[in-house]
Amino acid sequence: xxxxxxxxxxxxxxxxxxxxxxxxxxxxxxxxxxxxxxxxxxxxxxxxxxxxxxxxxxxxxxxxxxxxxxxxxxxxxxxxxxxxxxxxxxxxxxxxxxxxxxxxxxxxxxxxxxxxxxxxxxxxxxxxxxxxxxxxxxxxxxxxxxxxxxxxxxxxxxxxxxxxxxxxxxxxxxxxxxxxxxxxxxxxxxxxxxxxxxxxxxxxxxxxxxxxxxxxxxxxxxxxxxxxxxxxxxxxxxxxxxxxxxxxxxxxxxxxxxxxxxxxxxxxxxxxxxxxxxxxxxxxxxxxxxxxxxxxxxxxxxxxxxxxxxxxxxxxxxxxxxxxxxxxxxxxxxxxxxxxxxxxxxxxxxxxxxxxxxxxxxxxxxxxxxxxxxxxxxxxxxxxxxxxxxxxxxxxxxxxxxxxxxxxxxxxxxxxxxxxxxxxxxxxxxxxxxxxxxxxxxxxxxxxxxxxxxxxxxxxxxxxxxxxxxxxxxxxxxxxxxxxxxxxxxxxxxxxxxxxxxxxxxxxxxxxxxxxxxxxxxxxxxxxxxxxxxxxxxxxxxxxxxxxxxxxxxxxxxxxxxxxxxxxxxxxxxxxxxxxxxxxxxxxxxxxxxxxxxxxxxxxxxxxxxxxxxxxxxxxxxxxxxxxxxxxxxxxxxxxxxxxxxxxxxxxxxxxxxxxxxxxxxxxxxxxxxxxxxxxxxxxxxxxxxxxxxxxxxxxxxxxxxxxxxxxxxxxxxxxxxxxxxxxxxxxxxxxxxxxxxxxxxxxxxxxxxxxxxxxxxxxxxxxxxxxxxxxxxxxxxxxxxxxx
Length: 789
Description:
Layout: H1 22-59, H2 63-76, H3 81-107, H4 113-127, H5 131-143, E1 150-156, E2 162-168, H6 172-177, E3 180-181, H7 188-195, E4 199-201, H8 204-207, E5 222-229, E6 232-240, H9 252-261, H10 264-268, H11 284-294, E7 300-308, E8 311-320, H12 340-343, H13 353-363, E9 367-378, E10 381-394, E11 397-404, H14 407-421, E12 424-430, E13 436-438, H15 440-446, H16 469-481, E14 486-493, E15 499-510, E16 516-525, H17 527-531, H18 533-537, H19 540-564, E17 572-574, E18 577-584, E19 595-601, E20 607-614, H20 619-636, H21 642-655, E21 662-670, E22 675-681, E23 687-689, E24 695-697, E25 717-720, E26 726-730, H22 742-754, H23 760-769, E27 779-786
Antiparallel strand pairs: 1-2, 1-6, 2-3, 4-5, 5-6, 7-8, 7-11, 9-10, 10-11, 12-13, 12-16, 14-15, 15-16, 17-18, 18-27, 19-20, 20-21, 21-22, 22-25, 23-24, 23-26, 26-27
Helix pairs in contact: 1-2, 1-3, 2-3, 3-4, 4-5, 20-21
């Protein structure tokens, strides 16, 4: 027979808090607070009316006189009327509560009798000093008029046991037999404790649950109401009727819950029970509890309840020991002091963790679970980890031990996915410690034995085809420097002579401050897909034509670029000077740029250094760049200084080209005297790094754009260099970004140069590798290092 037909109530479990309903829950809580405040105001008025009734009885006066007397006496006592009314009611209840209550009930004929009974019972509770007297007062003044004949007040133990703290309407023998109920015994009170909600039983016999008075009141109804303060359930009030109750409680349920609330303060201080530490952490015990948590070998956090208006709204992470590891990788300093739902908003929705913490806090029953899935947000991405959890209540606080499964389990999951996808080797590289983890498939892909040392991402280009070096460089800049996921394809050159087509995918791992801590990803061998005839058969004709066209476009673009700007050669060594250049074309190879550089020894023994940037892209920019670069070389043979060279070059750009405009920096270095003369035409100033390690920009001297106006006077500056100094001249393709001013990018470049301690060529390579530019423009860098003569 279904449980509903037997009269057993079907209790729905408490609904888990949904993160999507958080705002609605806050609104409901606020409105409920306003309603509670209105109830409190009404309760205060009822207490004042009760006090006026006591004064009317004692002074034999009229209601208006009693109201004036109450206000006068309160003023003399330095109390509010409500406080003084509570004193009067308490004294009257202490002296002769039954007599006063009966007289007041008789005088209140025609009023809301339920409200009056609640006020009368409350006056008895205020006067009562123990739970037994509270139970007797509630039964006499509130429950008997409702038809109830007995009441039992149960105190909930931390182990789930129940102790009869007070009762009325039962024989002493019956109460003695039910003085203590061990944990695990199913009773109406225990059902209310577990469900944290009122249990309404039409008949005790139909529910099949044993309880106090089960022999004499078996055919009657039972109502068990949990009671407590601040969201912590202290006990249960069980009310008994001799007759069956209706299936639906109706309006009577709220009245009975209000009666149960009157028992909370006496249960909290019942004899033999130590009062819990306050939720705000007052008292020495909380400090001792923190020391206890720090002494645990397991990772643990201590949660303190957050009470808003006396209601439990959340838990605050009061303390976390040094062994605690946040599932999202955040440091303890970011966790301690925050609210649980702020730090782990998905705890209420996904894992049910918040509901379990509430249950433990309310009932005192510990909770333990192995391999429980806990979900947290990392950069707005849900991350689920398997965790062993233990939750225990300690004197008004909650201790949660949360042990995340070790790295071996993570590696097992990684291997499982890699094998499932097929020919994929997973890796993880810690950039802080240098530790590298490979799976077995990745060693086989590289043709290395399983006991070989894994290769770092920085060594990737050394094991790839030389033509793939630019693509690998862009891939490393995206992951290691820009900290964004990226992928690329390259040809792996294995030590056994086998070449494989590989695709690598990687993503950065950053900490709470945004600093890179690790890189993880996977290599996939795509050689079979690349060379499989089955895949090529269906698309051979179309792909052949498309690939041929793409190859021709790329070949022509590369030939044109190499003709205009040959690849950088090795460093130029001469007495007292070492010069080096770097040129990086735009990533889109068909866009021929207008950047140029030059570093050439002059007949005078001096060295000409120049960097320029013609506005725009394409053939016009390239031909204009050729004109200016060749013109500057010819003009430099005259032995003129940098300012005069730019003056002549401006006339060339203005008169002899098709409206070409450009920026440039020209410098002439005398190795014999280590003097540098330089001038600029609308270009970014050079950077000098002194032997001491300090890097600065040269002054922003006067000099306008080449080709903009006909007559321009350029300013020339002189700089004395010392042995070990490095001078860098560059184009804006090295630093230009769309999201920040150029000056900020220059400052960052100076900081990068300042922090570098390598040689000249390594300095140039570092600048290209860690370039933050995002405009896909050509980049030229020319550097000189002063050496011994």
